[in-house]
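Lab channel / #folding
Pinned by the channel admin:
"Please post every new chain as: sequence first, then the structure tokens as a reply. Keep commentary short and put observations after the output so the thread stays searchable."

First post following the new format, from NK:
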Amino acid sequence: MIMVFIVGLFIGSFLNVCIGRIPEGESVVFPRSHCPGCGRCLTAVELLPVVSFIMQRGKCRGCGGEVSWRYPVVELLTAVVFVLLFGRFTGVGFYLQAFFYGVMIVIFFIDLEKQIIPNRLVLVLLVFALVVQVFWPVQPWGTALIGGLLGGGVFLGLALVSRGGMGGGDIKLVTVLGFWFGWVQLLLMMFLAFFVGGLIGSVLLLTGLKKRKDGIAFGPFLVLASFVVSMWGKPLLDWYFRISGL
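Reply from TO:
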């Protein structure tokens, strides 16, 4: 578990690079990691996840500019997610889920900050989901295809009815998630996403942090709901069917 946590921290550091560069159309490999303020390349010590942020007190050693809290948050979040996945999945299943949610964490923060879901990230998830379905199928193809069509169809309908209230990135992402989970778990995921999204949206409006005309990124709620379904979807569905008598 400790090793998984440490590896998660370093992968989270790389995910921070992806979050910062992908929306700008930049390479996630070159150039080397650098301060966005002064452009100075970071040393090996400055690349240590979380530790470097604490040692530098959240400031660049070169220019003294503020380092975003997003960096340690993403690193710690990735480590915790990996530990939870390691406790839930075994063997190749863990590595597949770890890759999937590594990409999903990037989507979460890009959509949160920029209110966009880059097409290339959705494409990566789609290709990955297809490869997994071919070599490590967890559900019938029919269930996966119905899930993809259902998810995309529902969100496309919402986008048309709301006249753009639902973004194109959300439609594409939920289509891939529908294929990944299948239609049964997709329904649970959509319910959770709308429930949590509605709850948080209401709180933001009531506290004045957001106005009705302000957009609220929905991608993060899809990511959060999908993780809950991956971890606890089956027991949640079993509980629902038991109390409903279905």
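NK: The chain has a mean pLDDT of 92.
TO: also worth noting, The radius of gyration is 19 Å.
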